[in-house]
Amino acid sequence: MQFKKLKFYFFLFAITVWAGVFFILPDFLIYPTIGFKGTIYRYLHFLLVCIPLFFTLYLLAINKYIFKVLFPAFILLGSLIGYYSFRYKAIFTPMILDATLHNDIRTSLDVVTLELLIFILIQFFLAFFIIKYRNKITIKKTFLHLILASLSLIILFSINGRVTNTFKQHFPGSLYYNFTEYWLLNKEKNTSRLNPDISLRDNCNDSTFIVFVLGESLRADHLSLNGYERKTTPNLDKRENLITLSNIYSEYTYTNPSVAHILTRADEQHYERAKTEKSFISLFNQANYHTVWLANQEASEYYYSFMKECDTIIYSHPEKSVYTYSKWLDEDLLPSFNETIKKPKSCCQLVILHTIGSHWFYNSHFSDEFAQFKPLANSKVVTQNTKQEMINSYDNTILYMDYFVDNLIKAIENKNSILIFLSDHGESLGENGSWLHASSNNKFLHLPASFIWFSKKYLSTHQEAYNNLVENKDKRYRTDFLYHTILSAGNIPTTIINKNLNLFSNKQKLSISKD
Ligand SMILES: [Zn+2]
User: What is the pLDDT of residues 290-342, one digit of tens each?
Assistant: First the structure.
């Protein structure tokens, strides 16, 4: 091939390196791995995500007029994404888009800084010379180039699996992915769902605080509350009027379907209700509760419409996704929680906290003083850690959860309040060689932790409910119990509460058992 023909490819290679370094490499600066092997893994991962970048630039550069128009926009978006990733470890998510479009970015980010403006200016300055250089290259058979570049991108984004997934997390794939995800969320929000009890009316006459903590990947058998040999829940162990439910079964083993199942009237006979009905939040609204969703996880189209049923939604970290490895702590929910509790907008209040809990990468989800079980699992590549290191890091997330939930209780202990905790599913910790969740059929994936705490004031008017709960605490229930029990906890006068699934009722039948 003559040098002239190669010139275009050299040009593409050079601008890919430039864009890769400034717009993608910052994502890989916090990337926990161990040793030389880990470093190789990190840079191979980086090189892999530069492949779609190359073909996107290829597509843009085929026609010089199109390049002149689109390349500056590409640089602007890349600069923003690269800068926020480098400076704040923030990534572009549908939540950022949601917050930006609704002009409501409740984050600690300084959105526009002088440093950012200087960075963008330098990038534009370089882009000016790149466009000038592109003008000097003549390309023949543009149609063939167009087909080659487009086909490559289509193939890259339809491999569907871990590879496509990783492309979607980084620039420029993240642009496409987040806009489509945002569109899906809004489409889901606007689909009409059935209200299971339209006759329900205002019932709020005594100030009541209902707190529901939606846990993440927390399996019941690793809580000292449930007899685990390590003291993983020292604060909760000491709490009075706290009942642990040691035998809950979750149908699903990953977040999205599990959360939708838990929040709705879906049960083992009616799975479809997770897709067709509104959640219990709407019934609380009808009973004149003020409802708040405090999110420390990304929204998903599976449960976004339920979040939107709430009067208020506050994201504590819209700039994080489960593919980021910087610190991402549940205590960042506490300021919004305390503010909500101090200034209730109605005499009755339902607050739902969607926590990041014990999600992998474990070390990101507890602060340094909770690194008590050592050594830690310091590599994001699971196989680089020992079994004991994995369990140590996981158990530290539980110590941290114990601290976090104890702080929630402290904030409401003098009120007429109740706190219900339920994890979305369990976690595999090396059983049959399986780790994390959403993968294999390990019984611990189906055993989420759950417990319920009553304040003294709440107990004084709900002694019977408490006694019944004590009776029921070790029976095998599916997570289906939550819907009926939380409605009962809020004294919601609805006829749809199923007594067999309401843990506060004494007319209990055992829910089906499944191992
Ligand atoms: Zn989950």
Answer: 999 999 998 888 999 999 999 999 999 888 887 778 899 999 999 999 999 98
How far does the centroid of ligand 1 lie from the alpha carbon of residue 66, in Å?
43
pLDDT 10s digits, 157-200: 888 778 888 898 899 999 988 888 888 888 877 778 888 888 77
Tokens 């063939």 belong to residue: 144
Residues 6+ apart with CB under 8 A from 276: 193, 194
Instruction: Find the 452 Cα to ligand 1 centroid distance in Å.
Output: 20
Q: State in Å: Cα 435 to ligand 1 middle.
A: 14
This prediction has a pTM of 0.88
- Do residues 384 and 39 touch, judged by C-beta distance below 8 A? no
Centroid of ligand 1 to alpha carbon of 450 (angstroms): 14
Phi, psi (deg, nearest 5) at residue 398: -75, -40
**Tens-place pLDDT, residues 107-144:** 445 577 889 999 999 999 999 999 999 999 888 889 99
User: What is the C-alpha to C-alpha distance for residues 482 and 484, in angstroms, rounded to an integer?
Assistant: 6
User: One-letter amino acid identity for 42?
Assistant: R
C-alpha 114 to ligand 1 mean position (Å): 39
Structural domains in the chain, CATH included, are 2-189 (no CATH), 209-489 (3.40.720.10)
Give the distance (Å) from ligand 1 centre to CA of residue 55: 34
- Find the 217 Cα to ligand 1 centroid distance in Å: 5
Range list of β-strands (E), 51-207? none
Q: How far is CA 121 from CA 11, 115, 357, 402, in A?
A: 22, 10, 40, 47
CA of 90 to the centre of ligand 1 (A): 21
CB 218, CB 448: distance < 8 Å = yes
DSSP assigned state of 350: E
Report the alpha-carbon distance of residue 83 to residue 92 in Å, rounded.
11
In sequence order, what DSSP letters do the residues of 374-431 get, joined into one string?
Answer: SS----SSGGGS-HHHHHHHHHHHHHHHHHHHHHHHHHHTTSSEEEEEEES---EESG
Euclidean distance between CA atoms 78 and 91, whole angstroms? 12
